[in-house]
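Hi, here's the filled form for the chain we discussed.

Project: internal
Contact: R.S.
Residues: 145
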Amino acid sequence: MAKLGEAEIRSRLDGVPVVRLATVGPGGLPHLVVTTFALAGDQIFMAVDHKPKTTRDLKRLRNIRINPQVAVLADHYEDDWERLWWARADGHARVIEGEPEMAHPIDLLVQRYAQYERHRPAGPVIAITVTHWTGWTYTATDVAQ
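And the returned structure, exactly as it came back:
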């Protein structure tokens, strides 16, 4: 079992198609969602997109406005447990709603996901400044998927 270094954590996180975003709501209740994302340096961006939702006032956005502490998790599982790993980025999030400030993060998402080329996310955008990277792998010699 081995801890991952920051460069490897970034690489593994950037190599997965989706991550889990954890926020904390009123009363300390956790909220976890699977989401698309773009990694740029110490920033992770996510946007509210066109997929069906009951409201655009999403719980993750409300939670971030109350408590900006978030975590983003990527992981790999398979029956060969020697290939298990996870990578986590902890940080402070903010919600961006202005068109000019949303443009660059949405451009990054469009570059990453072909689906967004056809239907560009309208936002709002979640911008996370990562303050701590952590990760683990079963073996130091595993190969990231």
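Let me know if anything looks off before we file it.
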